[in-house]
Amino acid sequence: MLRYSDILKLKEEGFSLRSIASSTGNSRQKVTEVTERAKQKGLVGPFDDEMTDKWIEEFLFPEKSLESSGRYPIDFDHVHKELAKPNVTLSLLHYEYEIECRANKKIPYSYRSFVRHYSTYANKHKATLRIRRKPGEIMEVDWAGSTTFIIDRDTGEKVKAYVFVATLPCSQLSYAEASLSMDLSAWITCHNHAYTYFGGSTQIVVPDNLKTGVTKNTSRELVLNPTYREMAEHYGTVIMPARVSAPKDKSSVEGSVGAISTWIIAALRHSHCFSIDELDREVQTKLEEFNQRPFTRKDGSRFTAFEQEERFALSPLPDSFYKLSTWRTAKVRPDYHISVDSMFYSVPYEYINRQVEVRLTEQLIEIYFNHMRIASHKRMNGRFGQLSTQHDHMPDNHRLYIDQTPANAKEWAEEVGPNTLKVVDFLLDTIQPEKLALQSIFSLKKMERRYSKYEIERACKMIITMTNRPTVKSIQSLLVSNKKNDAEQELKRKSENTNKHYGFMRGAAYYGGVDHNE
């Protein structure tokens, strides 16, 4: 066996490759290969008693021990890299390895030996073992069973505080945050902060079956809290709650909860914090120490494992946090409004007496019917009873009434004609208060449903010639009278044309006499 330790020691002492080769009896090519591989693997002295030449050979050249068995060597770096990809398993990689062996007419390792050798390699050379957990696949979340506290400055009373825990099972990197409550707002806020801490989102989130996140979870049906589901959609992830009474479904976070209860919550037992922000700063300090603590059975820490093996696999975060929203149901009132916190928001009048879903954020109210958004309003604050009514939500008759302002009335009159404008101006100038004048003009405007603009303009022209004080009622009477006269004249005209051009009376000439009309 090569004297690996001697080669590396002489290299660290500054001897040249030629001198090392002469001293150890190896070729310069072999010395170069050993020193380069040690540099790649980060192997440096001093070497303890356990780091024998055999150990160093297995560390630097794991494939050599496999070659001695006479079977086709396994490219462990390739296997470890491929396992990070979605849906890739050791079973698939072993199948591809067997195909490669047959192509090269070599004897492959069995699947069991393939898995065992990979596990040995990963445990010795890599920060993570990817057989069970893929990087960036899962984030497990829960509230720690143990609690901590803050002290009320005024009374000296201890106020209970809770600790949120999120863990990435692949690298075991964890996040923790102190909170005064375990309600939906705190739950969503802690998720936002966890994603920021990790610098990305995972494909799946595995929570416990707490009521703030999961409404119902049975073998046949899963119903998530709408806000929690919406948060998952915002981050492009999927919520898959652990099965009821199945702690193994989120074993990593259960283990992290226990460790954090010791290294963070118990470690802060002598601390005296007077606000939740102060307590959370202490938690974050202990969290950094926890994630930087070296592993006991392999090199590195949770943080280095995350940097080397998992950060690359996380999905990028959206440009902004998920903004907390809550959902309610409401019934549309006969005035086509719904009530939310004693404020009233309109919906299209077609949904009167329908049950709708309402999404509330700090700035916005969104109204849904059968999962389709039918209205949105800026959320109102201040005194109760305020109305937010959109013009398009009103029935036609309401819309016409609301549109009545002096400016709109004059604009309509100008479209009809100059005489109508004179009448409208007279009504606005003489009738007080202005609201009564607008009501009269609205009555005149409604005549457009039965009469054309030409007929209204003609009636206004006639009333102006008759009196200096026109009224809407007199105009309405003229419209009826004119309509009747026009109908009579049209009937008379048609009768005359029929007798003149379409008669069937035979003249005298037909009977051999003289027709005097010719």
Overall description:
This protein is α+β, with helices and mostly antiparallel strands and about 525 residues long. It has four domains: about 5-125, no CATH class; about 140-315, Nucleotidyltransferase, domain 5; about 325-400, no CATH class; about 405-500, no CATH class. It has helices at about 5-10, 15-25, 30-40, 55-60, 60-65, 75-80, 90-105, 110-125, 185-200, 225-235, 250-265, 275-290, 300-310, 395-400, 405-415, 420-430, 435-445, 455-465, 470-500; strands at about 140-145, 150, 160-165, 175-180, 205, 215, 220-225, 240, 325-330, 335-340, 345, 355-360, 365-370, 370-380, 385-390. The strands form four sheets. Strands 1, 2, 3, 4, 5 and 8 form a six-stranded mixed β-sheet that branches. The protein has a four-stranded antiparallel β-sheet with strand order 9-12-13-14, with no helix packed on it. The chain has a three-stranded mixed β-sheet with strand order 10-11-15, with no helix packed on it. α16 (about 420-430) packs across α18 (about 455-465). The longest helix is centred in the C-terminal third of the chain and has 30 residues, at about 470-500. The model has no long low-confidence stretch (mean pLDDT about 80).
